[in-house]
Amino acid sequence: MLEKLRKRLEYVEYKPLYYTDELMNLYCNSTVTGGEIAGKSVLITGGTGGIGLALAKRFLFEGCNVTISGRNEEKLRCVVSQTENRHKGKLSYVVMDQLNIMDLTQCVKELYSSKKYIDIWINNAGIFTDEDKEKKFRSITKSQYRNIIDTNLISTIQLSKLVAECMESRGGSIINIASICGVVGSFLYTPYGISKAGVISGTQKLSEIYKNKGVQIIAIAPGSVATKMGNLKIGDNISRKCGVLNRASLPEEIASLAAFLSTSTGKYVSGQTIIASACEEL
């Protein structure tokens, strides 16, 4: 009986694909820049997990000096200590409060007034709430809405402007991590979708201001990614019907794209948002 039903119904069977350390390492053991950005200094906001941690590992592998930022110093210190054996002295951290404009201004000023110039700045820090995921816009409070907009949009644009002003003398790259949710209609009314649509628009506007001053400002809009924010973790099955890959993207893939865009070849892309979703439709 079951066999007859199978023959009558059209279906596609997706084999499990588990996000393992082995799979993760496959995307971490070859260069995507050919050594071009080795020795450059990189700062990644929200660098203690998910895409942020993958970014840190990618740029360390490419030979960069990496600084990660966040509000939780214990988490930052833990990430640095875990990489100490493999990348001794190459990874450091700075405590930065994304919601405090005075703190952001002071941190950027100190980073660019020291001998350690930041060549590549990646605005990755962000939040994606359960209400956003379930598109429960009407149940979100005013304070929740404000917190999402301040964290994802306001701080990203403020940091981009502060850093761009510091980069005018020597040039550099600013990469903002947006989201496919800022592009597709089904998420545009959620606070997360609104915030990421703002990041995409803000990236374009800032690029128009600084494009003739040697500063590259671009955005990457990932689709579903195998991170805690996306309700996935190491050991989970990431196979799903979403685009040509039939799986969620790996944070390591997003990190590799960011590294490539930081090269001289990647600098031909400026002011634009690269949608990294494998044709996924939400």
UniProtKB/TrEMBL annotation:
Single GO molecular function: quinone binding
Keyword S-adenosyl-L-methionine found: no
CDD domains: SDR_c
UniProt organism field: Clostridium symbiosum (strain WAL-14163)
Record keywords: Oxidoreductase
TM regions (residue ranges): none
Pfam families per the UniProt record, alphabetical: adh_short
Annotated signal sequence range: none
GO biological process: fatty acid biosynthetic process
Family in the record: Belongs to the short-chain dehydrogenases/reductases (SDR) family.
Source organism superkingdom: Bacteria
Protein name (database record): 3-oxoacyl-[acyl-carrier-protein] reductase
Keyword Translocase: no
